[in-house]
Specification:
This protein has about 350 residues and is α/β, with parallel strands linked by helices. The protein contains 14 helices and ten strands. Strands 3, 4, 5, 6, 7, 8, 9 and 10 form an eight-stranded mixed beta sheet that branches. Strands 1-2 form a two-stranded antiparallel sheet.
Length: about 350
């Protein structure tokens, strides 16, 4: 397909397509004899994705980063578009909620400019948090060997100690019937989410790592995979019956963990269940005691690992759920691996 045909097909202009080419977003093949561009179906999908992202306000620089892999599949382009739309939708939702807070002041005369500025600052901070999370652990590079890594034993500090038992108890704790939907956040290669397929549940796996999702899909074709992360789940409100996550939440600082819990609460149905199995200490006192023991034993690897990650405070997460009206149970597998089970309770 030539450039004029491509432009007509995509409801854009040849000038726009040439602009995206000049910016390095597309690289159509050119005929050496006449320099005419030829556009494949993949080129059209890439341009369509660019147009969609531009429509919702993404900059050329951000689009270039999102589409840095020139060999993306059609499905990957669709994932990028869906995630971008969800992020925009969530930003709009946050804006509406902020405005509602301003309107909802009990006494309009008491609303000051300072109140307005504080709410606006809160909105800006939310936007920054949702969009600024970065994978500093490079999970794409870990996808191929992840299943072997979790089985390794004998290290001075085994971060996956109790892995199989923890996943088994998580799957047992969540009660699902055939046809219900389970969301696994940070699904990785599917080691936890796949356990719910045998129960007849539909499983949706969310992960920010495209390579992890590809590996998950190879192992478990029945799992629906979606690119996304804790702070911007690619789901509409109240869509899932259960949410599980394992060995993933500890990649968020404490403040962002609470925002992640709010996201889980948003997509969960009435009477839904959440089970978080992750690196966590029962409370801050136990964290300090564990660090003291590792220090006394000269286990610098353990100290460094705990410093590099964001091991959760189980008591803080449990308190958040209880404040939201959930029934909460906690369990500690060992010093730094715990589980929180929370069931939403609705009044009949």
């Amino acid at each position: 397909m030539k450039i004029n045909e491509a432009a007509k097909h995509l409801n854009t202009t040849p000038r726009a397509i040439r602009y995206y080419e000049a910016k390095g977003l597309i690289s159509p093949k050119k005929d050496e004899a006449n320099d005419y561009r030829t556009f494949t179906d993949t080129d059209l999908m890439r341009i369509g994705t660019i147009l969609a992202l531009r429509e919702v306000g993404f900059t050329i620089a951000k689009i270039k980063k999102l589409l840095e892999d020139p060999e993306m599949s059609m499905t990957q382009y669709l994932h990028v578009q869906r995630q971008a739309l969800f992020e925009q939708w969530m930003e709009m939702r946050d804006m509406i909620e902020t405005i509602d807070q301003m309107i909802g002041q009990e006494n309009e005369d008491e609303t000051t400019m300072e109140d307005m500025q504080q709410l606006a600052a809160h909105l800006k901070k939310l936007k920054e948090i949702r969009s600024s999370w970065k994978d500093r652990w490079n999970f794409d590079s870990q996808a191929e060997t992840y299943d072997e890594q979790v089985q390794l034993r004998g290290q001075a500090f085994d971060i996956h100690q109790g892995y199989e038992e923890a996943l088994a108890q998580t799957a047992e704790k969540i009660s699902l019937i055939r046809g219900q939907t389970c969301l696994d956040i940070g699904i990785g290669t599917g080691n936890l989410g796949a356990r719910f397929l045998d129960k007849g549940a539909s499983v949706i796996g969310v992960d920010q790592s495209d390579m992890m999702l590809q590996k998950c899909k190879e192992k478990h074709p029945m799992i629906e995979t979606r690119q996304g992360h804790f702070l911007a789940l690619p789901m509409l409100d109240h869509q899932v019956d259960a949410i599980v996550t394992s060995y993933a939440l500890h990649h968020l600082p404490d403040e962002e963990k609470l925002l992640a819990l709010a996201e889980m609460d948003r997509v969960l149905k009435a009477n839904g269940q959440i089970c978080i199995t992750d690196l966590m200490f029962p409370n801050e006192v136990d964290r300090k005691a564990a660090l003291h023991q590792y220090e006394a034993a000269g286990n610098q690897l353990a100290i460094d690992c705990i410093a590099d990650e964001y091991f959760a405070d189980q008591s803080l997460l449990a308190a958040w759920f209880m404040e939201k009206g959930y029934q909460v149970e906690t369990h500690q597998f060992h010093t730094f691996l715990g589980m929180i089970y929370a069931k939403r309770v609705t009044n009949a």
